[in-house]
Amino acid sequence: MPTYYDDNYGHWTDTDDPDVRAFYHKVQNESVRKACNCCGRIVRIRPEYAICNSCADAQERGGY
Prior knowledge:
By secondary structure, the chain is of the alpha+beta class. It is built from two helices and four strands.
């Protein structure tokens, strides 16, 4: 099974499912390069997102 990762959602699972793979590619096509408002890294995220997945995960665990 191929491994997919992006700065929007992190690691993707169930990538053997054609619908999941199609959604992953749709998200990649809609993503833009911009600085994360939390860590400042340049990431590829959806235009409406302000922070990357790593920072969102950290916030959910009580960080930042």
